[in-house]
Amino acid sequence: MGKLTIAGRTFDSRLLVGTGKFSSPQVMAKALAASGAEIVTVALRRVDIDNPADDTLREIDQDRFLLLPNTSGARTAEEAIRLARLARAATGIEWLKLEVTPDPYYLLPCPVETLKAAEILVKEGFVVLPYINADPILAKRLQDVGTATVMPLGSPIGSNQGLKTRASLEIIIEQSTVPVVVDAGLGLPSHVAEAMEIGADAVLVNTAIATAGDPVEMAVAFKLAVEAGRKACVAGPRAPQRTAEASSPLTGFLRE
Amino acid sequence: MNQQSAISNQQSIGSILGDHRLDADRGSWDQRLREVTSRDVEAALASRPGSYNQEKLLALISPAAEGYLEQMARISRSLTVQRFGRAMRLYAPVYLSSYCVNRCQYCGFNHDNEFARARLSVQEAVAEAEILAAEGYRDILLVSSEDRAFITVAYLTELARRLRDKFSFISIEIFQLSQAEYGQLANAGIQGCTLYQETYDRTVYARYHLGGPKADYDRRLRAFDDMGRAGMRELGLGVLLGLADWRVETLALAEHASYLMRRYWQSRVSFSFPRLRPACGVPSTEFPHLLSDRNLVQMMLALRLCFADAGIVLSTREPAWLRDHLIELAVTRISAGSRTSPGGYTDPNAHTGQFDVNDSRSPSEVVAAIKSKGFDPVWKDWDGALW
To answer: Is the ipTM value over 0.95, yes or no?
Structure first.
């Protein structure tokens, strides 16, 4: 099925998961394990990143998972950069999910501040995975400054609405030279399958797993959906047709 | 463009409340509330969860909606979990001073009350905070009555500087400041302000606020504009429940919140629900609009159904059994083990508190209650780097 490669590192799983909103760190740990994910993102604002005894961090096996700190809560490039530097100084982790969300309600990412922060952080040696709206031009601008991926949203974070931005996502996927990780708004395994079918390199899911009735079973469901969607994409799905096309052509006999 | 924003971008909150008759001459609202039918309530419940319009809120706080609390609770819980997750932020207050120049008739710290008042030096306040830090708190609320002579901006910025390495989120619930002063505090790392209008009804406001700077209704109403312009991240609103009819107060509160969300779009609004409590010199029986448990819950749920992303804060004014139930309905931030007198953590019996705490359980007992409801107690949900 091919591996996912980000910044020279390869991963078997194409499902990235978040660590917020779970009912306990123990439930989170079980769901992470069930998801098969290899990359897990944690909000720097939520954890004592330099304290291994932190409830959340203690439950994440860092030999198994790549910890991807995120700058959730930052409203400006300056704040995101400050958080990123502190996190790297405390942990040595260079990977960073860049989130700059000045609106506290829909948590939509600010394109201006995100680009500004990405440019500086890449120069400082961070592996930057920026969370963006599904804006193809912004995606190009970010890949030009050297981000490791782009992470366009399917719909507003936590909204479970699926791929409301599909038309723009298709353009990003078509044009991007870095992996495209569809992030945010993926509320059901079918949403994730759809993202993978249209060619996303990976997806990130948090709310839909964390707030499910059974987060562990839901993590499994997402894992399977990612695999199914990826297989379908690789297998070469046919474009929808306006007319019916019989599996066995009715006039096949005329070939002779 | 949103029609409401088209109007209010030109208007101050004072004129919005005036236009809606929410600050005076409220009689027409009583009539409208009585006219709400079951069909109106059902239409409100069927509308997009979490979005605000006045008609919807009117239906949800009406007497007719009292028969729909269970449906409201289900929607509220689902919205809260979706937007905030199964997480419950914990915070604790530190009272800095009980000296006050105001004469508010419902408050234990009223200037006219005679009791042994206290104020903490910065060093003493840090000592109180250290007790909280040792219990696990990273979110601290600094509280003071109007003691400007002692609790100066210099005092607060110095205190914030000394608390920053122990606390990731510092907020205040003190007397009103100017925009420039809020700006100085924001620069010092104080990121949230709670300030209650107490009541949006001008006549009632005048009746209970007999003296001191706080007696100026219009000045107080402008406070959140100053906070918003100064870049405060969290704006905590509330009315003191018991002063005026809660239903009309909720309509006014919602208009204020909606106005702030549109205008200061980078700040998050939260609601508190302080019910009048017995306190020194405050016989709660003299207040005609005390709120039942049922109506308190109705108010909380109605606001959640209109504001999906607003913080909902619950203090120890409420009893343990009620708090435990509210955890899973709408609340996002909760205090525990609070002392409401200056120096109260160091010596619980030394001084008189602002109000009598109604849930005296320790933080660990409250944490256990949160976990038993299937929620994750969150001590740290902010980072000192974000200021």
So the answer is: no
